[in-house]
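Dear all,

This email documents one entry for the complex benchmark we are building for the journal club exercise. For each entry we list the sequence lines for every component of the assembly. Then comes the predicted three-dimensional structure of the complex as a token string, followed by one or two observations. Please use this as the template for your own entries, and keep the labels exactly as they appear.
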Amino acid sequence: MKKKSAILISLILIFGLLVAGCAPSTPDPGRDSIVVAMGGNPVTLDPHGSNDQASSRVHRQIYETLIYQTEELELVPALAESWTQVDELTFEFKLKAGVKFHNGETLTANDVKFTLERALASAFIGHIVGPIDAASITVVDDLTIRFSTTQPFAPMLTHLAHPAMAILNEKAVTEGGEDYGTNPVGTGPFKFVSWDFDEKVTLERFDDFHGTKALLREVVFRIIPDNTVRTVQLETGEADIIYDIQPTDVSRVDAAPNLTLVRDANLSVTYIGFNVDKAPFNDVRVRQAINLAVDMEAVVNAVYAGVGSPAKGPLGPNVFGANMDLEGWDRDLDTARALLAEAGFADGFTTTLWTNDNLQRVQIAEIVQNQLADVGITVEIVEVEWTKYLADTAAGLHDMFILGWTTVTADADYGLYALFHSSAVGTPGNRTFYRNARVDELLDLGRTTTDQAARLAAYREAQEIIRNEAPWVFTWNGENISGTQSNVTGFKQHPAGHHNLAGVSFAP
Amino acid sequence: MSVYTEKRQSLWLDAWRRLRKNKAAVVGLIILVMLVIVAIFADVIAPFDFTTQNLNAVLQKPNSTHWFGTDNFGRDIFSRVVYGSRISLRIGFIAVGIALIVGGSMGAIAGYFGGWFDTIVMRLVDIMLAVPTILLAISIVSVLGPGITNLMIAVGVSNVPTYARVVRASVLSIKETQYIEAARAMGSRDFTIIFKHVIPNTLAPVIVQSTIGVAGAILSAAGLGFIGLGIQPPNPEWGSMLNAGRHFIRDHPHLTTYPGLAIMVTILSLNLLGDGLRDVLDPKLQD
Amino acid sequence: MIKYILRRILLVIPVMLGVSFLVFTMIHFTPGDPVITILGETASQESIDQLREELGLNDPFLVQYFNYVRNIVVDQDMGRSYVTNRPVANEIIAKFPNTLRLALLGVLVSVSIGVPLGILSAVKQYTWIDNVAMFFALIGVSMPIFWQGILLILLFSVVLGVLPSSGFNTVQQMILPALTLGTGSAAIVARMTRSSMLEVYRQDYIRTARSKGLREFMVVTRHALRNTLIPVVTIIGLQFGFLLGGAIVTETIFSIPGVGRLMVDAIRQRDMLVVQGGVLFIAFTFSIVNLGVDVLYGFIDPKIRAQYK
């Protein structure tokens, strides 16, 4: 009997210890420490180790690029004080003097050379670097670096401003070895302190920062995967800023007197792609008919609760080169039916629409299924798991599919080449298998000519062709929606989603 | 008719008489029968088609036309819940059916013959039991892809070891009883003995386990829906309705309340019945 | 007894091997490609080939499995995640305590709800109190965990504003997740307590105690409850696995960094080594818990101890 009681008591004690062993921590972040809640989980803080937004959102604060693309999408000097294009292929960058890394090292051209070479060799972000010829990267002097591209590449500067092109310190990377991704060292306004995986990343102001120092002493990124809970965190004050407010919570945050809603158009587009290699989608009339049969206004309202806007073309409105004069495919069932009849499908047909388990995409699929029934097209929705989805759409096993794209560099080249050029079919990004010689020619021209007017004209024409040939159902242009406590000042969203927090502070 | 079968029948009659006295179990049974009736006559009961959208009547609160309101596509939630009973009950019963047939026969054969087959089966069961059921189900859905059939297979297969164990245990306890030995002495073949004598006598624990298992399967399916491995839209499975309505839970709770209540009522009724059956069929608890 | 425990521990090894082979095979033959998933929507064939080579995915299936087992046994190295390149062992060690704590607190909740309700309904068998008590116990198990979790957050964090909605470091942060997870098992614990209590109630020594004129309360707490322990301990052992599973959803809702969330993400990204590591860890814990439960019987009941040969 005694033994039994002893067991019982020790069990109770164990439970007690379990609870008591966890001392309270981080009760009130105070005035110079801010809590930012986001849904995604950073993969690695090695910018060459992944190209996901959650990672960029954190490492954007730690690192800098040679050139910075502002919230207004202008290119301004960052680590590079100035740059010149020596000839059609060659660029020369003059680095800012006296820039310190978080480990105390001083930035030199060797670090830039090291970074560019390492980035080029990365399977994850090698394609973002642009066609830089690794052999051409030359250290001219401590603060001057020069390199050439293998072919003329007009959007080169915007690529250098991509967060993945952050400049690393050679010594830190070598010392970090395989674990560099959890010991990042940059030149940015905040330095890395600690990372509790799946929970939070803590950053601290870097006092030797070469520019205007960050206003906050500490930034804590908390990973809150559930959308509803993230909004709750803002309302309860557990978070000071939250990213990606779900559409259904927008009005709630907007109405709350102690909260501020921040919303801006972003660089993303959601689309429904056709497999143009497959009948009946190899017939342009069928693709046009489907564009005419669906009503994207309804999608925006029912799926996104009024957030964002129906897409009219392949590029969002603030991308350089976006053709804003494209005519939208307004719903017109009679014309749609006539086009289908012309194509030999007067009685419609049966097809499948693939989506992954993203709730919004599933709901878009449900609306499209319903609307296409009005012109006799029977759509079966097939939910495919993400890994299989990417592999099978690249292999062309699909009929129709839903996917999104963010033009991170805000340049038409980034938003069109991978998605519509015939050389990019399959895994590189063109999952509609759309091939058009004229579009290829225009995209190549836009990529290689540095004459901005000629680029604009080329992209304008390319978008018109794409709009008319409709390899996509142009669906939705997104918005970045964040929320802050009203006493947070200086928070400004970056259209590409990786918001810069150096200027953020609490109002006195 | 043998003496044993007769005895068995009177046992069942006796159990039924006692079950009727257990009020909770009777309530559970009545609710369950009603749910099955709703599922069978869903097309008669539901006032609307479960896929018909009306984008001019979205997110309506419950009213006289739409008893449970409408969702963000203007679909009638009452109709969807009614049709959903078909899917959810089907998932529950078929998944348990799969687990029962596969696991049950594995357990019966292993328990009856013993030896190396028993060893292999039980080690396999140990291995599968060492991985949490839901994790096993997630892996299986990942292999097979989403969809109602695959969901049923995943939930079913992940429950196989449980049934293998339950059946094996009761086979072991019955194997040595006199009437099995009598049957054997009379020269019955093993196959006949297993199916005519052993299996019917293991029914009691299996029925209890299955009743509660159906509830577990429906919940597992809902859990998979939450992780995004549910069934293909626009099928109104309750778990996926709950998941899709989750984002509206604060301003329009009726999107989640009704499918949630439907799940609750179903699980409750199955559990009440299961508990009642356990009381009735477990000889140790009888006065 | 010692021999029995040793034999049981040795039995864990083939189970572990079996588990790892099962998982390895399943994920290996799952459609979808980890490399394409990691590289995302735009990936050139060169990058795909390069990464596949870097991760050793070009080796034949059995070679990959053999290498994996060898690395664990020889180098005590569980490898690195395909996705994050972090050591699998670190990842699991960082997260496992949270999951374990969550599961144990879940057990605590289910016991503190389930045992009293079970006793109550056994003592008042076949009365309306019995029915009401069992009904309450069942409510927890009837609600899908994620729905219950969100409702609890809305009630306690938003409406009442008394408990935080995320994290797992302070006592306050642990209450809601433990409730969400534990109520699901309360019904099972209550049911088991009730039936084993009923069984004990019919034993002679209870009748004796009663006839001696002991108050009913004393009979229940002094004599009946103790003997109800064994089946309750069993069910708690079994529930532990169920709770580890339920932790997956609870961890996501309450933003708790745990093994459940880690595993689901890893399965979906085909991050093989993380899945392997996680499953092995869970399976190992589960085996140990079950062993512990069996040993505990021996302490509680000498009759059972006699069977350990």
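Observations: The mean pLDDT of chain B is 85. Residues 190-227 of chain B form the longest helix (38 residues).
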